[in-house]
Amino acid sequence: MEKKLTIGLPRAMLYYRYATLWQTFFETLGIKVIKSNPTDKKILDEGTALCVDEACLSEKIFLGHVKALIGYCDYILVPRVSSFGHKHMMCTRFEAMPDIVRNVFRNETQKFLTYNLDIIQKQDEKTAFLEMGQQLGFDKKAVKKAYSTAKTVEQRVWKKKVVAQEELYKAEGIKIIVAAHSYVIEDPYLGKPVMDILRKLDVTPIRADITDQEQAVKRSTAVSPTIKWEMSREIMGSLAIHKDKVAGVILLSAFPCGPDSMVNEVIQRRMKGIPMLNLTLDAQSGTAGVETRLESFVDIIHFKEGTL
Question: Which end of the chain is more exposed for a tag (fewer CB within 10 A), N or C?
């Protein structure tokens, strides 16, 4: 029996944005998908050892996940996602990641799979997936069908997430928007403990990144017309749309994220009249310090609302 082709998905960075699309696409083609385990200290430490000191925490985690998959699959997916058009750019980490990975693991026999998404260079997502599927040996018709199926599933899953998130704005009690990239807020070693702590404090945390992306990008210009990073614009626009429905905002970042350092400063300067906490997560283990800051922030909100 012919061995089934396997693709490894590092559970970090763009995985949290495109997991449904990737997994459905490959599985529709009959490819077995394996994912790295959720982030833990070992993955972080191994990724940190592979990176230069200046790399952001999310990149270190990503390389740790790549290392965890080496030897367990035929290919590891490391896409290059550069732009969605003029003034709709991605952080340069996403553009450089395939080159970084191939350089870091240059002595390994592991194969890496890449697709290029760069609207400025007239390379759209559909074209990128068609080229990737054909590179794996599948005919064009099968690849087109797989992409169409995957895109339909992705859009359905995303709409369901947005509806569920919008319902949280109707909840009773204190509601706080957590503004963070999906690969920070969903990572079990980074953002998930923050969300868990907030819930223990009887707070309803709401994610700014799960929103109507097109509408959010349009609204982001009211806060800053010059911010060029697409995911930052989505978060910024989501805050502009929803900030009057909540009691506070938490700007959650992974150290030392370059785009966030600028965008969060803009948000703090332009969005007045609402309690705001700028919380940066680093590689230090333990959540005691984070928990203390979150407790203090929630107390400030209670005091402001006269419930303390």
Answer: N
Q: How many residues does the chain have?
A: 308
- Summarised one tens digit per residue, pLDDT across range 40-81 is 999 999 999 999 888 999 999 999 999 999 999 999 999 999
Angle (CA) 95 98 101, round 5°: 130
Q: How far apart are CA 59 and CA 261, in angstroms?
A: 16
Cis amide linkage into residue 256, ω under 30° from 0: yes
Which of helix, strand or coil describes residue 134?
helix
Question: What distance in Å separates the CA atoms of residue 216 and residue 239, rounded to the nearest whole number?
Answer: 8
Question: Within 10 A of 243 (CB to CB), how many other CB atoms are there?
Answer: 18
Residue 34 bridge partners (DSSP): 8
| Euclidean distance between CA atoms 299 and 293, whole angstroms | 10
Beta bridge partners of 249: 177, 276
Task: Encode pLDDT of 136-183 as tens digits.
Answer: 999 999 999 999 999 999 999 999 999 999 999 999 999 999 999 999
Residue 29: count other Cβ atoms within 10 Å of its Cβ.
Answer: 20
203 touches 246 (CB < 8 A):
no
Instruction: State how far the Cα of 26 lies from the Cα of 134, in Å rounded to an integer.
Output: 12
The answer to whether residues 67 and 12 touch, using CB atoms and an 8 Å cutoff, is: no
Would you report the helix, strand and coil content of the chain in percent, each value rounded to 5? 55, 15, 30
Task: Report the 10 Å Cβ neighbour count for 87.
Answer: 15
Provide mean pLDDT across the span 89-108: 96
